[in-house]
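Hi there,

I know you've been waiting on this one. I reran it after we fixed the sequence typo, so this is the corrected version. Both the input and the resulting structure follow.
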Amino acid sequence: MSIKKKLPLIFTILVFLILLMNNSLHFFRSKQQLLDYNESQINMITQEVAFQVENAKKGSLYVEDLIGRELRTASIAIQKSLPAKHEDVTNEQLIHLANELMLSHITLLVKTEDDIVGVKSTDPHEINMGTKGWGYWYDAFEQLLALTPVNVEKGLTLPHYWSGPIEVASSNPDHVDKWGYYYDGSTNYIIDPYYRDNAVLEYEQNFGPGKIMTRFTEELEGILELTVFNPERFGDEKEVVHLNGNSYTRLSAEPIWYGSYNYHNEQIDVGLIKTAAKSGETQSYRTTLDGKDIQKTFVPIQGNHEPFVIGLVYDYGLIQTQLNEELKEHILLSFIFMIFVLIISFIFSRSITKPVEYVVERVNEIAKGDFGKTLKADRKDELGILAKNVNALSISLKTYVENLKKSNEVIEFQALHDPLTNLPNRRYFQEELTKRIEHSKRTGENVTILFIDLDRFKHLNDSLGHTKGDELLKLTANRLKEALVTTKHFITRQGGDEFIILIEKVNKVESKLLAEKIILELNKPFYLNEKKIYLNASCGISIYPEHHTEIENLIASSDMAMYSAKKDGGNKVVMFNDQISTQGKQRPLIETKLRRALEENKISVYYQPKFDTNSGKITGMEALCRWKDDELGWVSPDLFIPIAEETGLIQPLWEQIMVAACSQLSQWNKGRNSPLTLAINFSARQFQEPEQLVRQIRRYLTKYQIAPELFEIEITESTLLNHTHRTISTLHSLKEIGIHISIDDFGTGFSSLSYLKKLPIDCLKIDKSFIQDINPDFSNSEIAETIINLARSLRLHVIAEGVELEHQRDFLQSKNCTLMQGYFFSKPLSAEEFYELIQK
């Protein structure tokens, strides 16, 4: 197809795509604006309704107290107008007094042998009416008759008088009354005047939220219905009271307080209303009811008196109708514009194709090798610029070889250097190390490798963002250069947050001092956008030829020494030694034997009791895994647990511990009045698959019939620093089940107080190192006491582990830390030994 035809087609398609994107963008923008407007309108309405509801409730309570005081005044007037004995009073006298005092009714209540009953009343339903089943009302009557102030904490209490809250009349549930009760000992009856129906409900009818709710639904387009729900009762079976032969629902138990509920969808609405009330967050959904496309929104209000939920039904179809109208207009305008573009593009294509043909002819000649060929460049438009550029092509080709040479130099530099820090990279390091070792063979000089890895850099990188993390790595590289400015060195970045430094002509002591100096320099604060960032680093040292003569082994030795520094807490320097070498060689053997032990189910579970020193009883135990190999003997958990985590064996190891420990707990708790609890340590590795972890725990607890509150998971502070959001979400899921969560070895890691406030944890376990530091005179106990106070301020339980001496127990008891475990009470026991202990 020729350019003459292609240009109009391309322009037309391009314009079509632009218009399509513009119309789509406009459609979604308009939709969002309408939704935002709808949301703001809903917020305005719900705020106004909530304000009216709160005002109505406040006003109703105020008016209710005024009515109560009026009824007391009426009671005194009644007392002065009637005989002191109810036998001498007639119903006609009561009717006359009720009319005179503008009361709805008057009832006289008398104490019988086992009840307080109505004996005289202007309301026939009140005569012979018993009150014993009225709850706190009956308590109030007895306190009045005893001439003591009423203290039922409901209604209004005045001298010799109590006024109950507005409520449905149990003698005649068709009415709502406000009662007063007066007794000063001068009569043998309680005087009970009361107002009925409109007399007590007039305030709320006139000043309640009903009118404004009606106005919103009538005047605002799209608002179909407004409802004020009682979240405690909506959707539940009605609470029906049966008294005096009548059945009715109390006002406070009504599921809907104001408004109507015509758009019924209880199956969904009940859950969303309760969720909104519980979480404090607005809930909404779209559906079709009664042939209308509607949106239901439920807004929780934490009222001053009682919480409630405002429900709003919006006609969502109005939004779609308005969007459809706008879309039609844009499509019509787009069609007209495309026709115009098509015509213009045909005219334009003809004006450009002719000079293009000329350019094509000349370019073909240059392509054949005639680089000196030039074009006439009289035009001042883009074609003229194109002609000039073609003319410059021959000159550009002349300089191409020179530029290619420079490019090769750049490529070579990039191949040997890290693009982020411009330090030599791994490949350059290998070449340089080979040269220096060859030189060392001739001169006998040492070659020292410092392998440096930043501690917790992944956590910093995740929290600061990768851009800031890269800036931090650049600053680290510069800091390393500054620290070695007086030493002959060769710094490389191996990748990630790892750096290797080559140093010559230094001995063991000098190399370690130099490494410690570097670590101290890296401990100084870094500044990113005026924000202080602190780093720690671990360093491993290996020396040629003392430690190894082969390059790969020499690097591996410094790497192993660095990991040894990390395992020892980090932020330190470790020189490679035989022990590290032995551990490195022993690791494959331990891994192989651990796999076999798991396959043959040879992992044992021991139990260390937890004691409550107040009661002197065992409250539970911590499950600990133990492994005795036929060849290696007892293998320390500190040795095989890290291997299990790194190789993925931690999951089958954990499953064997869960099966054994849960089975034992289920057996030991049979018939116990105070069931034991079980604590099991969890690895950070297990939180990488949170959903599977929660399912497995549920399965084990169900299988062995263990109540969730008897099960406790223990995690270390380092677990919180990895997979933070995923870990916190998993802990919340476990907490919802009812499982308890403890932070083990607390105080030895890097926990943030903000984490402790957000996490759903129940208990802090004080690390044994802080307990064992406590002296007999209770000195050197500041850290332990601080953790106890911290736990108390955060309303957490606290347990001390590693209690081995009597004075340690006495100190903890003096600080009200009564949950302990340690050799002072008992060493970890086998299942048989633990059973014998709890039997005693």
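Quick highlight: The two ends are 99 Å apart (CA to CA).

Best,
R. S.
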